[in-house]
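User: I'm new to structure prediction. If I give you an amino acid sequence, what do you actually give back? Let's try with this one:
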Amino acid sequence: MGLRREPTARQVRLATELRRLREAAGLKAREAAALLGVSSTQINQIEYGHSGVSEKRLRSLAAHYACMDDAFIDALVAMATDRTRGWWEEYRGHLPSAFLDLAELEHHATYRADVECLHIPGLLQTEDYARAVFAYRVPALPDRDLELRVHHRMQRKVIIERPEPVPYETVIHEAALRIRTGDRAAARAQLTHMLELSEADHVSVRVIPFDRDGFAGAWNTMTLTGGAVPKLDSAQRDGPEGTALVDSEAQLGALRTLFRKLEAESLDPERSRDFISRLAKEL
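Assistant: Good question. You get back a string of structure tokens that encode the predicted 3D arrangement of the chain. For your 283 residues, that looks like this:
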């Protein structure tokens, strides 16, 4: 098997979990290599995502590491043996790898949860809204690159529109609903589109209004994505250097708690739909 030049975020996550299991077992890479009868270089390549690992070797490593969590091991095996070439592969070489990693992550998700305070979440955006967001970039994107980003964002919606959709929750601040990213007509169409999507049983849209007392969490933009087991959940946070993936158990626990706290600050889904409907009628 050849070495990967650029492993995907999913492949890197598998590698990270295998390294964590080895370290929790108190073994050095060379000791794990000896257990499998391979070189320590091969173990390093596996643990950095530059090389795949067979189901037989993965289960052997898990046994040597004394991992007794069968559901977790099965989930890792599924990651290791997955050969999915999803729709996002058509963008490889045309968009930054982070776009492809996000689509792959969502494809395998068991749930999605977003918090947005200044923008409509990507999964709920209309084409005109997404185009306005990408067009505001400085320096400006060439037309072809801009359209590729818009089309990619529209295709990501498949996870909430397919026959077996992913459960989706989002908490949106009123500011994001009121900022006119496009013109008046585009803003009205965006709010109407959100209302239509929110009628689905698997979609929950909740609004935090401006007049909510004691709300100090406007900086808490985040995305939570469910893995096959909770240990494989992940999160994304936006920062000065771009989007960062979070996968440590402690950080994930804190972000889950924070999401529920923000959810508690918001209106329930029915009152949120009424709120969005009123805003749309004002436009």
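You can read the tokens as a compact description of the fold. Here is one thing that stands out. The first strand starts at residue 112 and ends at 116.
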